[in-house]
Each structure stands twice: as C-alpha cells, then as structure tokens.
What we know:
Blueprint: H1 36-43, H2 68-75, H3 79-97, H4 102-117, H5 121-139, H6 144-159, H7 163-181, H8 186-201, H9 205-221, H10 228-243, H11 247-263, H12 270-285, H13 289-307, H14 315-327, H15 331-350
Helix pairs in contact: 1-10, 1-12, 2-3, 3-4, 4-5, 5-6, 6-7, 6-8, 7-8, 8-9, 8-10, 9-10, 10-11, 10-12, 11-12, 12-13, 12-14, 13-14, 14-15
Amino acid sequence: MHLDRVISACVGTLAQKRGVGVMPIKNEISLKCRGISLVIAVICLSYVVPLHSFAGQGKVTPWSEISPPVDELIRSGHYEQAVEIAKQEAKRAEVKWGKDSLESSIALSQLGRVYQALNRFDEAVIEYGHSLKIRKALFGTSDARVAVSLLDLADTYREAGQYSRAAPFYEQALAAMEKAKGPIHPDVAVVLHNFSMLRNFQLNVVEAEGLIKRAVAIREKLQGQDPYPLVGSLALQGKIYEQQDKYSEARASYDKALKVMDGAQLSQDYTSGMLSFAIGNLEGRRRNYRDADRFHEKSLKILEAISGTDSPVLVPILQSRANVLRKLNRPEEAKETESRADALLNYYNENNATVLPAPPAR
Length: 362
C-alpha cells in the first residue's frame, strides 16, 4: 500500500444530493486533485514508502469526497461497514430514481471509490463500469460526467498496475473532457496530470513530459487560491526531467513548486518537506552533496514538526541523508543518522510495515 493511501492531504466536504449520501456530479472531478502532497511522495521521489499500518492511524481513502458516513467508517478502519453503507446508498438511489438515473450513477461511482480505497480494484472496475454505461446512455460520449467515469476507470487500472488497460481510458477521458470543457480548463489539467503519471510508470518519459507540460501550463495560467494542483504537476514534471538526466530542468521545476508553496505561506507544509527531500535526492545524484545535505536537513525539520520524530515518513530521508553524510566524510553523523533510521525501520517492520530503503548517493 502506497504512502498516498496512508495520509490524506486534503479532506473534501460533501454536499448531499437530495437525500442520497453521494456527491453532486459537479464535484466529482475535484476529488482527482486530492492528495497532491502525497502524489509528490509517491510519484516524484525515487521510491515510495508502502505501509500496511501507521502507528495509531488507520487506512484512509485515496480520495476523500465521498459521503461523510462512508468516509468516517473507512477512516476509523471499519471497511466492511463502509462497503455496506455505500451499497445501501446505491440501492436507495436505484429505488428512488431508477437504476438508469444520474443519481444511481453517482452512487455507483461512490461505491467504486470505496472499493478503490480498499484496493479492491476488480470490484471498483465493475461499479465504475456500470456508472459509465448509465452516463453514456444519458449524455453521450462527449460529456464531462462521462469523462469523470472514464478517468475513474483509468486511475483504478493504473493503481492496480494494469497499465495497458488504463491507457485507452485516459485517452478517451482526455478527448471527452477537452470537448466538454475546452483545451484550457482545470479539469483537463487533472486528466493530463494523471495520464502523465501512467506514462511515467510505463517509462514513456517523452510522452509523460509532453502531458505534464500541458498540465503545468494550464495550471499556471489558471492558478487560483489552491496551490496544490500546480505544485503537484511541477513536482511530477521535475521527476520526469530527473529520470531523463535533465537535472537543471528538474531543479527548476522543484524550485518553482517550492516558490508556489512559499507564496501561499505553506513553507512548513508536508508538501514543502517532500519537495525539499526531492531536491536533496536530486542534488545527491548530481554529487552536490552539501546542497543535498542542506535540503535533507530542511525536509527532516519540516516533517518532524508535522509528523513527529518517530514517524516512518522520516525513514527514507534519514537513510538518504546518511548516504550523503558519508560522501561528506562525516562518518559519525552518518552512523548516528542511519542508526535512527534502523530503529524506526525495525519498529515498523515488527508491526507488519515495510519501508523501502533510499537509493545510495552516487
């Protein structure tokens, strides 16, 4: 289970739709922007931290815009109850408005998101598929609501590692959203960003770069109150550059993302901590070890303040910093830092968690 499933960066609120505990259709696309700071952790660093459990913290949904009762059940670890409530809400929608109604499609999408949150991808695909069928019948193929269902399926297949199945759904979602909203719209940027994530996973970095550049351009042009969508796209762009050894371009993207966070007075936000970590890793790859250590130290200070000094989030940062400290001929500090990482790692391993090690500094 990836880090973006362990911590939620943004908790969405829900407007009830005529007595059915599901989100209004107009809000569905916004859920795809949730968890941007964690996308940075998962996509924009050189590794991820999969954990089956956090100390005292249950599994949470990848997207938070589902009905409050269902969301709360998932957050409190009552997964089967969450599924049953979502099923009941879908049934109520079918009885009240009909199985081929928009309300039923919304309820089915919510149920799909519950399954997706619990890594029950096959079941999520079934519910999303039913929702898509209803929406196509109601609205045709060039509708934003249809695009959202296509995006749901694409994201689910991507999370399940079925990349070849995900790709055509992203293509269809992008075409539908562009026709419905025009080429320069924040909802189009969501599809572009997520599609770029897929191509990045497929190691098709050229196409991934083209997609994320479009997403960044849209989000820069339409930047509003919320800095996270733009920051997430800049971070992903930085990682894609980094994978092509375009280190100067990568650093420029990361720096711009940090500048956006600073401008929003979020310099001590979790996202800023992860961006600092990304820059530290980048500078380690460039053998700029002093800069690498400076940004690792900055990342640690931010994340310790937010997550505590015994958080497993710190493990890969400590490991990476220990590698850099050795390159700086500071063996005692390196040993102390690594020992701290090992102690945290051992504790979480004993609790059935797994933290992948940081890549060595080169």
